[in-house]
Amino acid sequence: MKKFLMLLSVFYGLTTTAQAMKLDTALINEMLTILNEESLHDVDNAKLITDGLQILTDFDKRFTVSKGPDRIYVYHNGKITAVLPFATDDNLKIWSENIADTLNAAAKISPEIAVHDYELPDLLMKKMTQSLDKYSHYYSKFDYVPEDERNIFHHTFGDRMIDNILYLRVGIFNKQTAMQIERALRENPKAEGVILDLRGNSGGILNEALKTADFFTDNEIITFTAGRNGAHKHYYTSSDECIFKKPLVILVDGNTASAAEVIAAGLQEQSRAKLVGTRTFGKGTIQNVTKMTNGGQLVLTGEQFFTPSGKIIHEKGVMPDICTEYDAHDECSPQPRADKDEDISTALELLVE
Fold this sequence. Notes:
The structure is a single chain. The chain is of the alpha/beta class. It is 29% helix and 22% strand. The protein is built from 10 helices and 15 strands. The strands form 3 sheets. It has a 6-stranded mixed sheet with strand order 6-7-8-11-12-15, sandwiched between helices. Strands 5, 9, 10, 13 and 14 form a 5-stranded antiparallel sheet that branches. The N and C termini lie far apart (75 Å). The relative contact order is 0.13.
């Protein structure tokens, strides 16, 4: 098919003898396709590409990029050097060709850009991905470091009896968390209640958090996930392996996030636990990792968590049943309270009344 929207580019000023690397149009098209098809968020390709092309300014301040009503303008020394018309129906192939042409042409007139031409694809994809949300990232094959065991196994668990109440402190859900909680529960069969302290818990391994919910519930929906516009729902239900059916209080605060707030919300909505503390952080999205053909890794927000009743957790957080700190506006805002013993006292009062 004939290319119906042509890149209009006329470059001014000095030329350089530097030989710019020809950008791989297929790689750019691969990135745009993944972002458009798998991102949790609706994608505005014109904005995405405008943000990505800011790499020109990063390397050479004589370049500026701006988005108009129907096209993107690239300026060099205050003069228009390239115009990218918006692709009809967001034709990603045309967008990709225009981006590649623009970056290659810029490298021909700017020594500062030419010397970094090998970096341009990776840097373009970094900026485009980061413009979607703060949790999405692109890592080139040179800077991506997989999660290693040191980040998973550090010790963040403690348990003790307070009178006849079992207190469990979980700083993060790692590969040993569920095993440690089960051990503590089985070693203290006479406990009349449990305080599960998730203050300061940033999440960790979702499966370990869900296993924890198994110990306190029987066949209950704990959470479900869905993609853009509610597509691809997946429900997470507890097993029938409940080993503790007595009262449960969960401590939360403004640093309780991700998997930790997901199970706190689920146990709260299933009337299995009371929540004490402050509103949680509100990090309720899932980042999926895709390996690209150039060896890079795309970490992209593709789904989000919901409470059993369908409430959104992301950017809203989970409200406790008993708030222990209000802000200046008399709201239960996400305050950190990991070092406040008063919250433990409040939980104990709930369990012994």
